[in-house]
Design brief:
The protein is an alpha/beta fold. The protein has 3 domains: 182 residues, 2-Layer Sandwich (Nucleotidyltransferase, domain 5); 87 residues, Orthogonal Bundle (DNA polymerase, domain 1), CATH 1.10.150.80; 75 residues, Orthogonal Bundle (DNA polymerase, domain 1), CATH 1.10.150. It has 15 helices and 6 strands. It has a 6-stranded mixed beta sheet, sandwiched between helices. It starts with 6 loop residues before the first strand and ends with a helix. 30% of the residues are buried.
């Protein structure tokens, strides 16, 4: 299918005019492209917009002021259609401070309807026999100028969303799941902005370190901290400096000379030339340092009673999901099960305090959840 070329917005004045044009639209499909695979601090590099009549691509790297778009996204009279909305929402909140009032997420709708293929590419192929070129999923969206075929890929991410939304809306109505979907969509507006968090103790979560000695963990720590410093200085994602596997390999080998680094798989010549001395110094610091102690876990191990209640709730959810033909977390989120198991509400009113149980879920499943908890409490030990 041939698509009409999208309108590209590169100036704030043009964005203001576009917002004025679109403010009477009842529906707006939105998507974003970021450079997370190419930068330490990722940023939204493209915002795609589609109505039922036209497609637009806004370039945040060129537009001086992106705030005018916020009025459209926050307008409760406009339904904002995001496919797999969470990432787009939290990054738009982070970069531009946007808020959202009325969202429709086709991916969440498809899960509620029991669809098995949830990716936009799969849905477009099945509904419209349209194929997306997957090579641009890992593209660098911060580069300018963007080639026409890459812009076309971005355009296609929103062009078909109004029609996808219509198909899923009708199925939600047919299945009597629209209220459930609306409750799920409403939770998206409350997602917190994405943040930049570096955990200096994060090296303990590297899978390959499980069998290392504590003395080797001191080297891991120094290399882990150095890697983040290099990534920030070069504005690279940390995995492009060197991988966790390469980090652990260096901790095992504990190289003493810069020349030794060339034998380690995963270290580029450029990295060694620019940071080889710093890597050797980090290894030496780790060799001299006191072995670190693993951080204490902040969470407490649930009591046997809590675990028993959770397992009973989990089994109920599994059966309910099988009856509907959906994934288990469509029924009730896992976090809500743990909250129920810990707080043990005894009345429908007390269910109001459980995160993840909105009005629809409480009305649909509330009595069943209370019965499960009651049976778990009366079960013999």
């Amino acid at each position: 299918m041939s698509l009409k070329r999208p309108t590209i917005i590169r100036r704030t004045a043009d964005l203001r005019r576009l917002v004025d044009t679109l403010k009477s639209q009842p529906l707006l499909a939105v998507d974003t492209e970021s450079n997370s695979l190419f930068a330490y601090y990722e940023r939204v590099c493209l915002v795609q917009l589609s109505t039922r009549e036209a497609d637009y691509i806004v370039d945040p790297l060129a537009v001086d002021d992106m705030s005018p778009l916020g009025a459209l996204l926050a307008d409760p009279a406009i339904e904002i259609v995001f496919h797999a909305a969470e990432y787009d929402i939290i990054t738009l909140k982070r970069d531009f401070g946007y808020t959202f009032s009325r969202i429709f997420d086709p991916m969440l709708a498809a899960r509620i309807c029991g669809w098995k293929k949830l990716g936009l590419g799969n849905i477009l192929e099945e509904l419209f026999n349209v194929q997306l070129d997957k090579k641009y999923q890992r593209a660098d969206w911060s580069q300018r100028p963007l080639p026409d075929d890459q812009l076309r890929y971005a355009q296609m991410d929103t062009h078909y969303l109004p029609d996808v939304r219509d198909r899923l809306l009708q199925e939600l109505i047919t299945l009597d799941r629209l209220e459930e979907a609306r409750e799920t969509f409403a939770e998206l507006s409350d997602l917190p902005p994405a943040g930049y968090h570096f955990d200096p103790e994060g090296y303990w979560r590297i899978h390959e370190t499980r069998d290392l000695k504590r003395s080797q963990m001191a080297i891991v720590r120094e290399l882990y901290l150095l890697r983040d410093q290099i990534a920030q200085r070069w504005d690279w994602p940390v995995f492009k400096v060197f991988s966790d596997q390469t980090l652990v390999q260096m901790a095992l080998l504990a190289p003493r000379r810069t020349e030794d680094l060339y034998a380690i798989k995963g270290l580029s010549e450029r990295l060694i030339q620019r940071n080889g001395d710093a890597i050797i110094e980090a290894v030496a610091r780790g060799r001299r340092a006191e072995p670190p102690n693993p951080p204490q876990r902040a969470d407490t191990i649930p009591s046997p009673d809590v675990i028993a209640r959770y397992e009973a709730l989990h089994e109920w959810r599994k059966q309910r999901a099988a009856e509907r033909g959906v994934e288990s977390d469509v029924i009730v989120p896992r976090g809500a099960l743990w909250a129920l198991a810990r707080r043990v509400p005894a009345t429908l009113e007390e269910l109001d305090q459980i995160p993840g149980l909105g009005p629809w879920r409480r009305a649909e499943y509330g009595e069943e959840l209370l019965n499960v908890l009651a049976r778990a409490a009366s079960a013999p030990e």
